[in-house]
User: Fold this.
Amino acid sequence: MAPEVMEQTGHDFAADIWSIGITAIELAEGEAPYSNLPAMKVLITILKGAPPTLTKHDKWDQSFKDFITACL
Assistant:
């Protein structure tokens, strides 16, 4: 869930772009970012931290990494 959706401050298509980026990470790595954390910790991490990234950086080319960065 995009940070602006969690904060309930209103959102637009940017939340959908965020979702595409998260889905791309999940498809690439086989699991969602922060899947090892409890749900409330995930919410806090997304709201307070930097956007998630690919953990297996060497496995992907630069254009895919740039796509993820642009989405998030």
Observations:
- Residues 13-29 form the longest helix (17 residues).
- Helices lie at 3-7, 13-29, 39-48, 62-71.
- DSSP finds four helices and no strands in the chain.
- The mean pLDDT is 87.
